[in-house]
Amino acid sequence: MKTETYRVKVGQKVKLSDWNTDDNAGLKKREGKKRAKALQDELALWQERLYAESGQALLVVLQARDAGGKDGTVKHVFDAFNPNGIQVANFKVPTEDEQAHDFLWRVHAKTPRKGMIAVFNRSHYEDVLVTRVHDLIDRPTAQRRLEHIQRFEELLTDSGTRVLKFYLHVSKDEQKERLQARLDDPEKLWKFSEADLAERGHWEAYTRAFQDALTTSTVAAPWYVIPADHKWFRNLLISEILLETLKDMNPDFPETNLNPKKITIE
């Protein structure tokens, strides 16, 4: 699969309507799910190498509209990894203490230590999305924040943390179906919030905000627009990109002076 097709190029002005939400790269669901499952063992091996080496880290950013599939991605893609080597952070409405600091203060503490993979289920980008859509900041302030974010991600990269950013791209019709499914299923009703309907009413404003956020794609911290109407394809594509990235990082098991032939376990 040509994963670079879904990568936002450096300096590219993004128009989300140019990206298909129901793309499946010509694959059938059964084939795609089989391929995704086959990748899990390989992902687990590369995570083990990353953890053992403890010289690099990986930060994965997930952003999407409501019902876009962030939780599902964490559940179905990252379950390939050993829990000891992964952490998941979710950034909600800032607390009073967090609001008293700069907007990146609460985020920096959640970035991964060397050897670890961190997943941001929502992230520092919320501060240029929700805040902008609801007129808590103006566009010039949002632009300055995007510049701060790029420098922040450069700092992480310079410190040995690779950054991957995924925008899960769902259609308005697909979001409607998923929200309705939550209403119809008693076991999913807890996930439904009337606030989601209010946010749905700002569809175009969120589109503009996401398009601006995606311009922060760089060589070291790229954005990928992931077609997310098909959950199985979303999982497959993210798994492919994760594997490519880990292989490119090329972590290795640390060398040791131990000679196993000279050790006897009584």
TrEMBL record:
It comes from the Bacteria. Gene3D superfamilies: P-loop containing nucleotide triphosphate hydrolases. The keyword Glycoprotein does not apply. GO terms for molecular function: kinase activity. The keyword Flavoprotein does not apply. Keywords: Kinase, Transferase. SUPFAM superfamilies: P-loop containing nucleoside triphosphate hydrolases (SSF52540). Residues 27-252 form the Polyphosphate kinase-2-related domain. PANTHER family: POLYPHOSPHATE:AMP PHOSPHOTRANSFERASE, POLYPHOSPHATE:AMP PHOSPHOTRANSFERASE-RELATED. This is Polyphosphate kinase. It comes from Deinococcus aerophilus. The lineage of its organism: Bacteria, Thermotogati, Deinococcota, Deinococci, Deinococcales.
